Structure formats: structure tokens, C-alpha cells
Amino acid sequence: MPPISLGIVSDEISRDFSEALKYALEWKISLLELRCLKTGRLPNIDKAEFKEVLELVDRHRVFVTALSPGIFKHPLSKKKELESELKEDLPRTIEMAHKLHAPLIIVFGFQRQQDDRPEYYQDAVQLMKRAASGAKDGGIRLAIENEPGFWCDSGANTASFLKDVGSPALGANWDPCNGYGTNERPYPEGYRAVKEHIFNVHAKDTLEGSLIRCVPVGKGAIDWKGQMRSLMEDRLVSHITIETHCLPLIENSKENIETLRSYMREFAEKERS
């Protein structure tokens, strides 16, 4: 059972990329996902800051695994905002991804509202088809991060949506913690439902809701030991990205790294015995 590498969302250490990189390298982490920097969330950041990030990535020979611009978090009734993200933010993020040699952009699956009409689902599918087509043309893949209260919330709903879109350039950013509180257990049921579509995985944990009381991995409701074992056995991804989400960030990010590495060592030792 070969090990899986660990990465981390840089602003889960610090929005100052140089500081985040310092700690990541101390912890022997060379895979970084970019989301928020000092001047904002990608792609809406200062040009000078982006230039600094490019220089640091090149100098330290780290790999940017994905960019997370936070697009498609609006409900489908916000047509103007969604069109702007599709026509402006996504192309700008694709351009940034190429400069950083990042192969993936993380998007979301549209917030649901109580008064959503049934036809909104097809609107969501068509909008995501356009996004996936644009990404494919730009030589980039997209991954939908499941999120509570969204059309893509559980593993099963995300898988169904991805099948309806039907693009090889579109997959899942599987976040078991974000699936907590839906009508399925994130692991194993949610994982089994979505695993054939997984491009990327986020690791965080919670005691209540998906984001209400986040805690270090292994101290919450998610069966991370079981999830890690399945990821190592199935080899769907080459790395897992830590998304700490609980203060203090530096201390808890380090703890998450140590916990996940301890799981991998344990599995490897059992396999050898």
C-alpha cells in the first residue's frame, strides 16, 4: 500500500504566502493549494503579490496542486453574478493556473434556496457544462467541492450532478467533512457514491455540522482513519490536501499533518506484518 502525499491550503497556515511556505517546508510539505492571499481571494489579488507567489513557487520548487477562486457559490437566481464568474473570474483563474503550472481549479455546485424551481437543476447543469467546456478548452480540469446547502452537497448528489454534466474535464473535490449532516454518512456511503469522479480530496474534521465546530482530524465525527485507508487502497488521488479550518491554524495544521501521517504509517506497518 504505497503512501499518499500530503498537501495543504496555504491560507490554512497564513494568508502571507511566504510565511505559509516557510511552515509547509518545515513540515516537509511541498504541495500547496491557493485560495486566499493577503490582498484577497484568487483571482482578485494584487498583481505584485501574485508575482511574489510565482517567484516563491519557482525558487522553492514547490507544486501548486489547485486554485480555489470560490466561484459558483451563488444561488441560481443570481444570474448576473454567475455569468460574471463564468465569463470573467474563471478565465482569469485559468490564466493564473497556467502561470503556476496548476492542473486543477476548484469550484462549487450552486447554493440552493427554499423557493428553487425544479427547472433550476437543469439551469445548474447547463451552466456547469459551459464552465467545463471553457476549462477543457483552456487545458484545465475543474473539481466541484461538495458543500452543505448546495446542489452538490452529498457524495450521491455530487455524483449524480457530475454524470448529468458529463464532461471529462469535470470531477469532484471530495470533502467528507462538508458532507456531514446530509442524508448519508460521508464515509463510507458518500465516498462510495462519488469515488469514480474524484479528482481531489480535502481533509478537515468537525464535531457539529460541516463547518460549525471544526476540530483537528481524528477528533471529530468523520471516520478519517477509514477514509484514509480507502484512499490508499483505491489510489484515486496521489495526494490529500489539508484544510484545517480551526484555530490556532499553525498548531492545528501541524497536528493534522502528524495525524494523517500516523495513519499512513500504521497502515503500512500492518501491511508488512
Task: Explain what you see.
The protein has 273 residues and is of the alpha/beta class. 44% of the residues lie in helices and 17% in strands. The chain has helices at 17-26, 47-60, 79-100, 120-137, 155-165, 186-194, 224-234, 249-272; strands at 5-9, 31-34, 36-37, 40-41, 63-67, 104-108, 141-145, 170-174, 198-203, 205-206, 214-215, 239-242. Helix 6 links the parallel strand 8 and strand 9. Helix 3 packs parallel to helix 4 (120-137), helix 4 (120-137) crosses helix 5 and helix 5 (155-165) runs parallel beside helix 6 (186-194). The longest helix has 24 residues, at 249-272. It is globular, with a radius of gyration of 18 Å.
Describe the protein's topology.
Elements: E1 5-9, H1 17-26, E2 31-34, E3 36-37, E4 40-41, H2 47-60, E5 63-67, H3 79-100, E6 104-108, H4 120-137, E7 141-145, H5 155-165, E8 170-174, H6 186-194, E9 198-203, E10 205-206, E11 214-215, H7 224-234, E12 239-242, H8 249-272
Parallel strand pairs: 1-2, 1-12, 2-5, 6-7, 7-8, 8-9, 9-12
Antiparallel strand pairs: 3-4, 10-11
Helix pairs in contact: 3-4, 4-5, 5-6, 7-8
Could you say which structural class the secondary elements and strand pairing correspond to?
alpha/beta
**Could you spell the SSE succession in H and E letters?**
EHEEEHEHEHEHEHEEEHEH
Question: In which order are the strands of the major sheet placed?
Answer: 5-2-1-12-9-8-7-6
Distance between the termini: 13 Å
Low-pLDDT ranges: none
* Largest sheet composition: 8 strands, parallel
CATH homology superfamily: Divalent-metal-dependent TIM barrel enzymes
User: In angstroms, what is the radius of gyration?
Assistant: 18 Å
What percent of residues are in strands?
Answer: 15-25%
Query: Which CATH class applies here?
Result: Alpha Beta
Q: What's the count of strands?
A: 12
